[in-house]
Each structure stands twice: as structure tokens, then as C-alpha cells.
């Protein structure tokens, strides 16, 4: 997953750098092809990884579906958006410049990806009162022996993926009774704090998913195989 995170974040930052460099002429076609190739590699790698996880999960008697696809896909995307936002705001702060429109786009992508993940995770709890199923067993483990870790995951996800990124944008763009900041320094602090919460929160979500699927021992085996 680390390779996909780095690749996606690098493509985002490179594209932002091209757009804000002030160059009057468009970048050479080879640069555009290189960026598209890197993004294509990341997408292919993610698709391959998800297909392998699906096969391994079903072989072990677990469950898989569109919700599992979303959780697996959005994890590296959320971390990449968070990383790109932190690097971008730090760069703006060092140059003494404002966050800019691209910073707002990164905030939007980060909040959207984490928000969709949290909603998808929450829908699992609706299975607790229904017919017995693998998803119901999964949800019961999350509110039973894994309840403490589940609460921590939600806390980290909400702060790292929603509250702190939005605070960074509010400081940069202003809001009612909040004047916009001249430089990106305060926004950079919020973005770094968001990344500090986001990364462990996303990794914890992945660990909880596999532990709730198979239990602690089988989860470790699945992680080693992947």
C-alpha cells in the first residue's frame, strides 16, 4: 500500500507544481505521459491488490462486497491526499504564500474520501439486528472485543480526515467571523496534525477489518500473505 500512497501523492504534487509554476507554455507531452503512467501504475497496483485480497478472503470463508472494495480502495487514496495536503501547505508556508485553490481541492478530496469510508464502516453496524450473516459477526466483533480500538479509529478518522483538514481550509480561506490568514503557516500546522491522526487511523481501520473478519491469528496470516 505504501507504494500506491507515494505514487498518487507524487502525481498530485507534481501536477500542482506544474499548474502553479507560472510557466506561460504547457509542460512537454512527455511530462504529461509520465504523470499519467505513474497514476496508471498506482491504479493497476490497487486493482491487483484488491482482487488478491478478495480471493484470499473468500477462500478463508470471510465476506466481500462493494463495501469491502471501497474500504480497501479509499485507504491509500485518503493517506495520499493527506500527505499531499501536508506537503503543499508546508511549501506554501515556507514561501510565505496563501494556501490557494489547489489546497482547497486537496481538502475536498481528503474529506470526501474519509467521509465515504466512515459512512461505509458505519453501515456495517446495521447488520447487528438482522439475519445471521458473516457481516453481522463482523459487526458484533467491532462492538464487542474490538470496541475500544473501533472508537479510537473513529476518533482518529474524524479528526484526521474531516475536522483538522476543514480547519486548515477555514484558516486559509476565512469564514464567518474568521478572517483569512495571510500566509499558510496556521493551515500547515492543521494539515500536519491531520496527517498525524489520519495515518494511524487508516492503518488501524485495516487491522480492525481483518481481525473482525477472521480473528487475530488469521488476520496476521492474511497481512503476511498480502
Description:
With 226 residues, the chain is mainly α. The longest helix has 31 residues. The radius of gyration is 19 Å and the shape is flat. The model has no long low-confidence stretch (mean pLDDT 81). Keywords: Membrane, Transmembrane, Transmembrane helix.
Low-confidence stretches: none
What is the count of helical runs?
A: 8
- Total number of distinct structural domains: 1
Radius of gyration: 19 Å
The shape is flat
Q: Structural class of the secondary structure composition?
A: mainly alpha
SSE string, helices as H and strands as E: HHHHHHHH
Task: Please state roughly what percent of the residues sit in beta strands, choosing from under 5%, 5-15%, 15-25%, 25-35%, 35-45% or over 45%.
Answer: under 5%
Largest sheet geometry: none
**Cα distance, first to last residue?**
10 Å
What level of helicity do the residues show? over 70%
Q: How many DSSP E strands?
A: 0
Report the mean per-residue pLDDT as an integer: 81
Keywords: Membrane, Transmembrane, Transmembrane helix
Transmembrane segments: 29-47, 68-90, 102-120, 154-172, 184-204
Task: Describe the structure concisely.
Keywords: Membrane, Transmembrane, Transmembrane helix. By secondary structure, the chain is mostly helical.
Describe the structure using short key phrases.
mainly alpha, 226 residues, transmembrane helix, flat, 8 helices, 0% strand, single chain, transmembrane
Amino acid at each position: 500500500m505504501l507504494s500506491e500512497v507515494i505514487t498518487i501523492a507524487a502525481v498530485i504534487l507534481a501536477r500542482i507544481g506544474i499548474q502553479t509554476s507560472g510557466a506561460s507554455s504547457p509542460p512537454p507531452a512527455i511530462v504529461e505521459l509520465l504523470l499519467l503512467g505513474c497514476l496508471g501504475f498506482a491504479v493497476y497496483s490497487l486493482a491487483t491488490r484488491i482482487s488478491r485480497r478478495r480471493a484470499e478472503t473468500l477462500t478463508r470463508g470471510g465476506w466481500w462486497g462493494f463495501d469491502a472494495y471501497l474500504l480497501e480502495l479509499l485507504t491509500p487514496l485518503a493517506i495520499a491526499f493527506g500527505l499531499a495536503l501536508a506537503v503543499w501547505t508546508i511549501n506554501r508556508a515556507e514561501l510565505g504564500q496563501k494556501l490557494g485553490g489547489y489546497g482547497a481541492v486537496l481538502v475536498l478530496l481528503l474529506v470526501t474520501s474519509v467521509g465515504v469510508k466512515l459512512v461505509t464502516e458505519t453501515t456495517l453496524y446495521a447488520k447487528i439486528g438482522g439475519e445471521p450473516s458473516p457481516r453481522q459477526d463482523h459487526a458484533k466483533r467491532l462492538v464487542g472485543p474490538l470496541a475500544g480500538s473501533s472508537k479510537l479509529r473513529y476518533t482518529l478518522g474524524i479528526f484526521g480526515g474531516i475536522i483538522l483538514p476543514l480547519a486548515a481550509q477555514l484558516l486559509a480561506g476565512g469564514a464567518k467571523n474568521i478572517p483569512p490568514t495571510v500566509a499558510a503557516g496556521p493551515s500547515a500546522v492543521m494539515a500536519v496534525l491531520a496527517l498525524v491522526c489520519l495515518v494511524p487511523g487508516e492503518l488501524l481501520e485495516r487491522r480492525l477489518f481483518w481481525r473482525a473478519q477472521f480473528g487475530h491469528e488469521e488476520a496476521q496470516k492474511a497481512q503476511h500473505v498480502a
